[in-house]
Amino acid sequence: MTAESIAGPAIRVQGLEKSYGKLEVLRGVDFDVARGTIFALLGSNGSGKTTTVRILATLLKADAGTASVNGFDVATHPANARESISLTGQFAAVDEILSGRENLVLVAKLRHLKDPGAIADDLLDRFSLTGAGARRVSTYSGGMRRRLDIAMSLIGNSPVIFLDEPTAGLDPEARIEVWDAVKELAGNGTTVLLTTQYLDEAEQLADRIAILHQGRIIVNGTLTELKQLFPPTTVEYVEKQPTLEEIFLAIIGGDDESDATGTNN
Ligand SMILES: Nc1ncnc2c1ncn2[C@@H]1O[C@H](COP(=O)(O)OP(=O)(O)OP(=O)(O)O)[C@@H](O)[C@H]1O
Ligand SMILES: [Mg+2]
After folding, report:
1. Furthest CA-CA distance within the chain
2. Which residues form a coiled coil (predicted)?
């Protein structure tokens, strides 16, 4: 490990651009993620969240700009960057035919770790999957699958973890279980970048929240800072804090192309 990889933010993104043909998805994205923090990237469908994560995970090349993970530039040092990360994609990557435990053992073996069985048992325990460990994943609920998926991404103790919509499609109870797992991760010093469309998820988990909209980060701050951006409330609302959802809509709502104005009179 070089000195460069020890100092500085866990993730640094500067001027990132990416187009698919004529579709300009990222048009100059900038953000930093401090070590050991949870950073939530919010955005509507198609705003470029997965594209950003895929670039950071070295699965996709940017057209312009730079991105580094754990101090390693993803374009010039992709192998070092990859060693620093773990990715849980938008769609679960578990093998349905194997049991939960077998999935974990497989990943530990692929990562050439000692005692894969013990690693698997420890993770099953941490994610409340011990009882289901021997069962085929095809019998798991969505929440159990997601937890297993996240558990798999923890094998090898990567300093930086990407979670692309970790709770998409889960019921409220399963979401809370995943949130607890993510909080535990960050509590142990792992840096977490998660993407989500669920604003309450960002509100619950993130130290900082950035909103990706029309190819750029239009807001980046703590929840408290974001709340200060919310337009001053009227007398009727003095007792109510704006939810992140209201802040989000207030911030991105202004440039809705089909904006119908003056409907309140
Ligand atoms: N390989 C590709 N080829 C062409 N267009 C693509 C490709 N991948 C993504 N896109 C387009 O780029 C845009 C951004 O996609 P991306 O998956 O990054 O969005 P997202 O914010 O993750 O959306 P979602 O919330 O639906 O997951 C979308 O309009 C998508 O259709
Ligand atoms: Mg996506």
Report:
1. 69
2. none
Find the ligand nearest to 23 CA: 1
23 Cα to the center of ligand 1, angstroms: 10
Note down pLDDT in tens along the chain; length 265 residues: 444 445 689 999 999 999 999 999 999 999 999 999 999 999 999 999 999 999 999 999 999 999 999 999 999 999 999 989 988 766 666 788 999 999 999 989 988 899 999 999 999 998 889 999 999 999 998 888 888 888 888 888 789 999 999 888 777 777 887 888 888 888 888 999 999 988 889 998 999 999 999 999 999 999 888 888 776 655 555 567 788 888 888 888 755 444 444 444 4
pTM of the predicted model as reported, rounded to 2 decimal places: 0.82
Residues with CB under 6 Å of ligand 1 are 20, 23, 25, 43, 45-51, 90, 197
Return the ligand 1 atom nearest residue 165 CA.
27
**Among 35, 32, 37, which residue's Cα sits nearest to residue 202?**
37
Report d(CA 55, CA 81) in Å as an integer. 11
